[in-house]
Design goal:
Blueprint: E1 21-29, H1 34-46, E2 51-56, E3 60-62, E4 74-83, H2 87-100, E5 115-121, E6 126-127, E7 132-133, H3 142-151, E8 156-157, E9 161-162, H4 163-167, E10 175-177
Antiparallel strand pairs: 1-4, 1-5, 2-4, 3-4, 3-10, 6-7, 8-9
């Protein structure tokens, strides 16, 4: 019987390695070709270095939140990915993807071609001027929690709890699964 090599390198303990964390993103589109916008955003995420898409929810059609009466409905999906990227870099990537799809930011909660919301990054809790992790209203939004629950029933939002428990207190009537829509990616 040979003894373990005392000089073997354990790659997980090498200094300088970045931790792999799970990230949850919610993508939404209410203007233009909503389905194509979501498909393109997922392709852009899949093409992002240091980010690996793990799962994608079904497409859900949802009533707009906080906009004006008569605003168009959104198509939403939740994406779970593994990443070594920092939260700020993820935010910048999300904004770049939104910009590539013609997103404008004149008015808060206005209809938009694409919205890429960073919901959770591992267990990180961050509150800065331009970035709050977890997303400050995700625990109140059925359009985030319903698709997330579909692909990760044990998901949690740090500081808020299990998404299934959070969802039990929300009105989900404006969140409709669209089994007739599939996203290309």
């Amino acid at each position: 019987m040979t003894s373990p090599n005392p000089f073997a390198i354990d790659a997980d303990t090498l200094s300088g390695m970045k931790p792999i964390r799970q990230v949850v993103l919610c993508l939404g589109s209410s203007l233009g070709d909503r389905q194509a916008n979501l498909s393109g955003a997922i392709k852009a995420l899949e093409d992002t270095p240091d980010l690996r898409v793990v799962d994608i929810s079904s497409v859900y059609e949802t009533s707009p939140v906080g906009g004006s009466e008569g605003d168009p409905d959104f198509l939403n999906v939740v994406v779970i990915a593994d990443t070594t990227m920092q939260s700020r870099t993820l935010l910048e990537r999300g904004i770049a993807i939104e910009d590539a799809f013609g997103r404008t930011r004149e008015e808060r909660n206005a209809p938009r071609t694409l919205d890429v919301d960073l919901i959770v990054v591992g267990n990180e809790e961050l509150d800065s001027e331009d970035l709050t992790i977890p997303h400050p209203r995700a625990h109140e939004r059925a359009f985030v929690l319903v698709p997330w629950l579909e692909i990760e029933p044990a998901g949690t939002i740090p500081g808020h709890g299990a998404i299934g428990d959070l969802l039990a207190d929300l009105d989900t009537s404006g969140v409709v699964r669209r089994d007739d829509l599939e996203l290309e990616h």
